[in-house]
Amino acid sequence: MYGVVTRNADEVEMEPFDLGFYEVKDVTGRAAAPLPNAVNMVSCFGDNAAASENPELVPVDERGEPATRDRDYFDWAYICPTHPEYREGLLEIIEDCAAENDDVRLDDVGFPREGFCHCDRCERRFAESDRDDWTDWRADVITEFVADAAERVPGRVLLTLYPDPYPDHLRARAGLDLDRLAEHVDEFVVPLYDTEYATTYWLETIARGFRSRLGGDYDVHGAPPETPFSLELYAVEVDVDDLIHATEVAERYAKDVFFGYDANNAAAALRRKDADEREGEVHRPD
């Protein structure tokens, strides 16, 4: 199955896609009303606008440095996952999405990096918890949020993961404990974005790593993971032939393949891919 990720409501049912993801809240802070004919997406803890308006929302490291896009390695500003009012606001948005369409996708879930967050609230909550290890406590915070969100979604819960399948990396970096999250999530989505896809060995390596990490057979022809995962490719201004090749690699390992932010280019790639496959068919005479 192929899907498109878009901010344009008129693209969610565009052919030849089987599924449309619609960004109800993105990392800029832009908000839109959820759609009944799309899987609505919520950027949970990425929010440039909220961070700019209220710096107290932003996670800080041990030196008090904030996780904002003004710093190296951050493409957007983050919000501390323990902030109670912000969390409640997110859950209300998720409820609104689920009221329009049973399925919801959670995006940008987790702490920014290993060194976050050391705000007074996080320090206090860790001290008051029954955890001795800070990494364990952070995993509790994120798992509890996803569980709370999942309770509000009557259909499928999809969760975006950072593209890092190596053991314990996601847990150490963002507080994402895949084994625990799998109890609340129906499908993981892994964005593997590139502006060219001129080479795809790295895409195959990461895809195969996630297949193995999530419990599937290492052999691509073997049993898939119990919790399926899909791959999301970047489609903006990517050469059509390169995008087709990336799609062919991705679909060997993932349940589905989604395309981000250029529906027309992705549609052109899929149509050409389909035409090439039809031309390659060999029909034997009766």
UniProtKB/TrEMBL annotation:
Q: Please, which domain of life does this record's source organism belong to?
A: Archaea
Protein name, per record? Glycoside hydrolase domain protein
Taxonomy of origin reads:
Archaea, Methanobacteriati, Methanobacteriota, Stenosarchaea group, Halobacteria
Q: Give the species this sequence originates from.
A: Halorubrum persicum
Matching entries from Gene3D superfamilies are given as:
Glycosidases
